[in-house]
Fold this sequence. Notes:
Chain A is an all-alpha fold. Chain A contains 18 helices and no strands.
Amino acid sequence: MQVTSSIREPLITGGKTVRDVSEDISRQVEGKPTQLWWIAMGISLTLLGFGFYCLCTLLWEGVGVWGLNKTVGWAWDITNFVWWVGIGHAGTLISAILLLFRQKWRMSINRAAEAMTIFAVICAATFPFAHMGRLWLGFYWVFPLPNTWGSLWANFNSPLLWDVFAISTYFSVSLVFWYMGLIPDFAVIRDRAVRQGHQLRANIYNFLSFGWDGAARTWSRYESVALILAGLSTPLVLSVHTIVSMDFATSVVPGWHATIFPPYFVAGAIFSGFAMVLTLLIITRKVFKLEDYITIYHIELMNIVIIITGSIVGIAYITEFFIAWYGQVPAEQYAFFNRMQGPYWWAYWSMMTCNVISPQLFWFKKIRTNIVATFVLSIIVNIGMWFERFVIIVTSIHRDYVPSSWSMFHPTIYDMGEYIFTFGLFFSAFLLFAKFFPVINMAEVKSIIKSSSEVKQKH
Amino acid sequence: MSTTTKKTYWKGLPQLKNDPSFVKHADKEFVDMGMQEDPGHSRRDFLKMMGFSVAAASLAACEAPIRKAIPYVVKPMDADAGIPNYYASTYVNGGDYCSVVVKVRDGRPIKVDGNSLSSVTKGGTSAQVEASVLSLYDSYRLRGPKLDNNATEWETIDKEVIAKLAGIAEKGGQLRIVSNTILSPSTKATIEKFKSKYPTTTHIQYDPISYYGLLKANEESFGTAMIPSYDFSKAKVIVSIGADFLGTWLSPIEFTKGYASTREISEDKREMSRHYQFESNLSLTGANADYRSTMKPSQEGAVLAQIYNIVAGRSAADSGVAHVEKAAKELLQNKGNSLVVSGSNDKEVQVLVNEINNLLGNYGSTILTSDPINFRQGNDEAMASFVADAKAGKIAGVIFFNCNPVYDYPAGADLAAALKNIELTVSTSYTPDETASSVKYMAPDHHYLESWNDFEPKANRFSLSQPAITPIFKTRQAQESFLIWAGETDVEYYSVVSSNWNNWFYGKQTASTNFQSFWDKCLYEGVYEIPSEKKELSFTSHADEAFSKATSGAKSSGYELVIYESYGIGNGNQANNPLLQELPDPITKATWDHYATISQKDAKSLGIDSDAEGNTKLLSITVAGKSIKLPALIQPGQAVGTFGIALGYGRTRVGVVAEGIGQNLYGWVGNSNGSLNYNVTAGVSVAVTSDDFQLAQTQIHQTYMGRTSVIQESVLSEFKKDAAAGREFPKISNWDEKVDASSLSLWKGHEYKNHYWGMAIDLNTCTGCAACVVACNVENNVALVGKQEVINRREMHWLRIDRYYSSDANPEDYKAAEIASENPEVVFQPMMCQHCNNAPCETVCPVAATTHSTEGLNQMTYNRCIGTRYCANNCPYKVRRFNWFKYHDNQQFVQSNPAMNTDLGRMVLNPEVTVRSRGVMEKCSFCVQRIQTGKLGAKKERRPLKDGEVVTACQAACSTGAIVFGDMNNPESNISKLLKIESDPNRPYGIDKKIGNPRAYRVLEEIGVKPNIFYLTKIRNKDEHKEHA
């Protein structure tokens, strides 16, 4: 029986023991995939297949298959990129910053959140590649590699180059961090496989666990590395979206050129990241029967993060408007008028409704502890955050300085197809992860279960 | 047999001296260099060889494809690979005339420029002239003669044609030669020879766009059917009633030049002409007018009557058209320095115009009857009787000499039917056009760039055409065909022309002492002028008669239709030229389409609500029982109750470029007083259909939204008080004060130690004619992308002309400011890469593909570009163009872009400019290839580059000199003088030079990107300035 505090809700409910933890989490890995899993995987692969076709067409024909034009050089591509990168923020924030702040409630959700981060960053990275006119050169020319062209070097002034560094650093650190945490859990699965006599599984997970031996010294090193990586990741959480925001903030385009962008983007990223974590975990806890590990309390805490970041984002929107009025720059003033009342007014108002108004519902405890409401709102937040990026990118550049070049952007099937491709990629990867990797960090969760051997013996 | 004489050759001094070391190795062929006796092969050698072989094999595998370059066996004297030659020549098309210089690179004409030695066109060109070089490489051209539409040999054609001609002549059958205006004396002589052989021949001249009414009016006023020269440069008040003299009327290249000289202003010259325009369609000329009033075509008589009455000092009834009285009074105040022109082809109207000009004393000053023009001689009555004769079966043989009446004559369909019953039908057209495909014998002429010719555009002013390339196909000079058919022996047309010149002109000059040097000089200069006495013709007034006839004209009943000449494709002759199809109309900005312009008010009443993106409805327009469907284009400035539809579309035998575009409006051209009438004032009915249509416009936002940092304009009265009128001096806030926007910068600023290239564009002399756009396309191999891609807003033009309408709304009211006035003021702004010193594109490129040169150019390195498009997003001027697809060697674009997708078309490409590949960004380079050529030329001669040696393509094409390009470091350059540049003595090569010209401004000065292009404010000669968006 778990020992619980009388003043504090337990983080893990259901009176789980250490053994129960191993049992509950490893069950998914060891069992056959469920029918539901197959259906989900089938849908994901279909999306992936269609998206792949669109992607191949894009690469074969040229970027012209998208709906971009002389005025709107970026639209869905960079919208999706920023959106996915934003989503990718929650994982590291949860595992790194909350680790440093000793927030133990993160333990049941950090694994899935980190996995989500990694897949989201992969999805995000497809867009900067796909949107390049000459991908076959661009994928390596953006790196400062030594070359035979004399002094020719990447342009260190370009925010796009900073992006390359920021994203690749973030991705590698996140990946290492995530994998590091997986090692003891792989070892658990290996050990169970040995006991169950599954030689192949034992071999595979042994390999994945790098021969983890569970010795005290190993644990000590493990925890040191975790702490170091957490320390490394923490600035990255803030830096990645800061740098992504500089793609816009350092430009001259009215509506992009704003010093508020870095904090505003980071808040937005955490906002959308938590929303996506919620969306995924609400499904996962249901499907994998992990309600005792990911409790209403977890959900409530995440909802509180959403309400805070959502409000920050809301204040940022209002600040932008204030500055546009206060700054007295005609082009800037028009840009913000155009957001509200121009041809893309619907995108702006979708953004406002989804991002600023709807999260305010979480002030009500009934709503923030209601799973269905949370699920719906988490999706709404992500729709809103997609629109935020669309509004920033498209409505700013489609009508900028010189009215003769003002134009409209209409997405084509290939714009959508590329987005669908990343959905297929993301969900396929997440389903594979959920099936073959332990979705909850067993080792850490076990550390917060206060169990007594006496009670257990009685049981 | 003595052995003593036998020579001994020794290998070297050691042998001679019998050196021991030599003797030792004497038996060995190669000197041993001290290698091992038995070298063997070490493992190391084996690995080396192995490595080499693998490397060599893989290198050989990726060898570049072999392209054969075959050198000349004997190099022609004036052909140097890579060095262009220039030949003076002449462009003539259906009455349009332009003296040109053809640039030939490696035997291929690749560019046409104006010939500044010509006193007629004075170095100007038009969009059509610039584009004509691509027509040379039109895949639709005839490859050789055809008989009944089957390829045949010239001998067969000649045999059959001569036999038939002889047969007809024997029977006394009627022969006709039908052509557009012939202004070539040698051609006329050739036709005379043909006529003397076949005396039943009559030569009939008609023009697709007729000026016969004007000819007849002058016959009545002066006794001679001629068209005088108009000198716009002397006019202080210009009143045009429906004459688009800057766009299409009579001689627009010449007029544009004269007109612009009256619009040029500066601190020292604060006077300019005042221009009134009364018209139905918003024409290019109307867009440049100071006061433009809309009128229906049926009001033309009333407007003229009012002007006449005021000018004649009689009491005048109000015509109901704005500004007529004001215009007439100002005409009176400027007697002798005014000009009234009318676009009407009605003789009676033109007679009244003559009367007005006579009262104003304009003859001899702004109108020169002593210098008549020859390029509009079409006789509508002769043509009408020819068609009637053909229909009646009175004609036995007809030769269509480079004309296409089946398409471009109102009774073309009747003519085509009649041709079937004519014994001998020949066409010399160089394409199988509508007329050529209705005749039996196609005897294709050369393209003008392959021909010899001479012209007399105005009396005693001559010009020559010379071939710039050997004929590409088995075509034959049409005049040679005539001579052969006339049984002449001397048919070589070059010798015909030169012997004519020997007979006619050599004797009249004294400068050259032998004919060859005279001929060479004429050929070199392209023009030859005989100084002659100017004698004005005497005017005979028919005032009262003219007044009553002209004003009793058309009565309005409902909608009226104005048929006009398309600015881009003109009379339709060059419809298959994609450069012109993709050229945005200067006013509507529409490409690739035929449409009916309709006023905002009428659109509302008809219930047409076209959105900003060109989505509109098809109109069903019916005239005299015949109806056509065309999309409606809502046109601010269109007179209410009128429609405008262009000629030149609806070609049926035209080639893939223009196939299926639009309707042929020639059939609707009516007749009044014996000449063709382009206004339909009665019986027009219009209905909106439910069919959707999307127009392809390159500009979909029409107003400049009150953005005075983009367009700075004022009126002359303000300008007289302050030369900086209309200027905006943006300030930005420092921490404690407001300072000039350009004075704060993060950057230290460049220093250009050598040249510092810059450009100035005068918005006052720019008429928006767009010749520069086509010139830029041709010079820089700019891809043409076709209608769908224009709809996708992806046209590739490096240089565009932004056209803004004024709005009645308060600029603060953003929504209302988007809507143009019912009759707006128009401003044109050529816009291309501004070559910013603090270029926003340069900092954002991740791979440094766009960088700054040491001479102030913002340059684009195509092969480094990876196509992130960040530069385009960050360009405040939106001048960067992305290669969304592979526009070359791609069958998808063969229709719109033959210059990059057919073997024939590719010959037009400028080898000095890379054809850009898919996925890279491109933009105006300030014609960097021309800068390099200029610098190399100067370097070879070891001297500094002189101002004017480097001329950009747009500058060269600009008839009015609105574009000035040059070195801003050179205080003597035109641009330095125009902008009154003063260098900072502490930083003589720095970018922050003081610009002394109060009119000069940089677009978007407030964002501090510091462009190297300056615009000079637009000044209208209006009494008061109207604040608008």
